[in-house]
């Protein structure tokens, strides 16, 4: 009774203990339960939860990163495709130009060769014509002379010696030529 | 006496009024080693019904959270998402919200433990066959209030070594003459009233909740089976009130757990934020 605090004075036997005075076992068991719960939350539950949250954040970040990587990859692929396409186009253009140039060169070659050929044929033809003409002329010359002489002999009734007849023929032909030249 | 309604009649089944003695049931185990305690012998490790209820609450909490956080998946199952929601509520809604992520993480085990310990021991007040809150006896509220008290003093001293008590008792920016008034007020409100209000708010809520529920259901029992006749109508009324107050007690149980954890966190926050 001597050490009892004021609020405990209502000491009406064992029926109603003072609810504000903690009993030793109350405190002890409360403390035991609190420590057990604290250790379990601190050492087991919350680390597991934190690990999960970290994992989840990493998964989300990883997903974003993966998507970014895929996007970059796609962009790179597109770019390389485009450069390849441009290269192929340039190559095709170059080949076309080359072909065109080659065609022009071949055409020019052929043309030149044809001209040459034509010229050669013309020259040959000229030469042949000239030769024929010469041949025809000389044979004609002899034949015309002979004919004329024969004719004149028949007309004159006397023969002429060869030297005189030849001279007459030549003179006649020269006149003839002269006539054609002046006309 | 605390039992003004104890108007026990001579009927076969008298009215059983609620009593503060409900919170001090007989010791069932370890009654033997006793200690001289404020004028009476008290068992040191005594276990009574309340202690068993507390242990059961703790066991349930341990089972839920240890099993619930085993093999956690990135995409939670339904059970896992409930456990995550509970932990996330304390983490994001209380700790990180008030302390920020860095300090919140330091004090998270303490705040989480306080919240779920109080919640599980409050809710036994409406669990059938338990019917009494483990926090209705002063031990748990007092212990947790002292833990909160220690936590905020630790937080303040660690953050502002040597300056914490000075800043708390002699707030800067106050004219020196006013310290005669301010300092005692600050001392009482910060270092005396905080643990007392934490303890009493929780304990008295639970005690009153229990007394109310017992009153309504005991009255219902009395009206239905002892009084009978016309009084049965009263029984219907008291039963309805008992039902309504059971729902209300669920709210109180959650709210008091939230308030206790929140105030602990607020005290830590104030200690950390104390001006230089």
Low-confidence sequence ranges of chain A: 1-13
- Counting copies of identical and different chains, the oligomeric state is heterodimer
Terminal Cα separation of chain A, in Å? 182 Å
What Rg of chain B is obtained from the alpha carbons, in whole angstroms?
Answer: 23 Å
> Rough shape of chain A?
rod-shaped
What is the molecular shape of chain B? globular
- For the secondary structure, the number of strands of chain B is 2
Task: Outline the biggest β-sheet of chain B.
Answer: 2 strands, antiparallel
Q: SSE order of chain A, as H and E?
A: HH
- Mean pLDDT rating of chain A: 85
Could you give the order of the helices and strands of chain B?
EEHHHHHH
> Biggest interface in this structure?
A-B, 41 and 53 residues
The proportion of residues forming helix of chain A, as a percent range, comes to over 70%
Share of residues in strands of chain A: under 5%
- What class would the helix/strand composition of chain A place it in? mainly alpha
Structural class of chain B: mainly alpha
**Average of per-residue pLDDT values of chain B:** 89
- Low-pLDDT residue spans of chain B: 1-11
Membrane topology (chain A): Single-pass membrane protein
GO molecular function, one term (chain A): proton-transporting ATP synthase activity, rotational mechanism
InterPro entries (chain A): ATP_synth_B-like_membr_sf, ATP_synth_b/b'su_bac/chlpt, ATP_synth_F0_bsu_bac, ATP_synthase_B_chain
Pfam families (chain A): ATP-synt_B
Overview of the molecule:
The complex is a heterodimer of chains A (183) and B (276). Chain A contains 2 helices and no strands. By secondary structure, chain A is mostly helical. Chain A has one domain. Chain A is rod-shaped, with a radius of gyration of 68 Å. In chain A, 7% of the residues are buried. Chain B is mostly helical and 276 residues long. Chain B has one domain. Chain B has a two-stranded antiparallel sheet with strand order 1-2. In chain B, a hairpin with a 2-residue loop joins strand 1 and strand 2. At the A-B interface, helix 1 of A face helix 1, helix 2 and helix 3 of B.
């Amino acid at each position: 009774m001597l050490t009892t605090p004021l609020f405990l004075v209502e000491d009406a036997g064992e029926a109603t203990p003072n609810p504000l005075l903690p009993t030793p076992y109350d405190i002890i068991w409360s403390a035991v339960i609190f420590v057990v719960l604290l250790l379990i939350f601190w050492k087991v539950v919350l680390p597991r939860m934190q690990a999960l949250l970290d994992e989840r954040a990493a998964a989300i970040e990883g997903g974003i990163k993966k998507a970014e990587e895929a996007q970059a990859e796609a962009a790179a692929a597109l770019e390389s495709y485009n450069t390849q396409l441009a290269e192929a186009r340039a190559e095709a253009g170059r080949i076309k130009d080359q072909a065109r140039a080659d065609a022009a060169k071949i055409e020019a070659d052929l043309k030149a060769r044809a001209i040459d050929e034509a010229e050669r044929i013309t020259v040959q033809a000229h030469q042949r014509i000239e030769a024929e003409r010469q041949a025809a002329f000389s044979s004609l010359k002899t034949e015309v002379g002979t004919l004329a002489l024969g004719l004149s002999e028949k007309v004159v009734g006397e023969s002429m010696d060869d030297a005189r007849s030849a001279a007459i023929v030549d003179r006649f032909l020269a006149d003839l030529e002269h006539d054609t030249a002046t006309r | 006496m605390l039992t003004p309604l104890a108007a026990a009649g001579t009927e076969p089944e008298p009215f059983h009024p609620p009593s503060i003695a409900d919170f001090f049931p007989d010791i069932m185990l370890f009654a033997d080693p006793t200690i001289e305690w404020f004028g009476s012998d008290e068992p040191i490790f005594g276990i009574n019904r309340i202690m068993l209820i507390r242990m059961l609450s703790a066991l349930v909490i341990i089972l839920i959270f240890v099993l619930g956080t085993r093999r956690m998946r990135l995409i939670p199952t339904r059970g896992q998402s409930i456990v995550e929601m509970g932990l996330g509520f304390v983490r994001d809604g209380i700790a990180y919200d008030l302390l920020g992520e860095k300090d919140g993480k330091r004090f998270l085990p303490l705040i989480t433990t306080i919240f779920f310990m109080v919640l599980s021991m409050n809710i036994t007040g409406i669990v059938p066959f338990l019917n009494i809150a483990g926090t209705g006896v002063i031990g748990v509220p007092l212990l947790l209030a002292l833990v909160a008290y220690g936590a905020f003093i630790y937080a303040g001293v660690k953050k502002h070594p040597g300056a914490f008590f000075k800043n708390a008792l002699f707030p800067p920016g106050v004219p020196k003459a006013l310290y005669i008034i301010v300092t005692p007020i600050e001392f009482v409100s910060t270092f005396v009233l905080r643990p007392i209000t934490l303890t009493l708010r929780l304990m008295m809520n639970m005690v009153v909740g229990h007394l109310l529920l017992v009153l309504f259901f005991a009255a219902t029992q009395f009206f239905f089976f002892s009084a009978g006749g016309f009084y049965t109508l009263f029984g219907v009324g008291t039963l309805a009130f008992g039902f309504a107050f059971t729902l209300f007690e669920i709210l109180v149980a959650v709210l008091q757990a939230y308030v206790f954890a929140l105030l602990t966190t607020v005290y830590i926050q104030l200690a950390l934020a104390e001006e230089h």
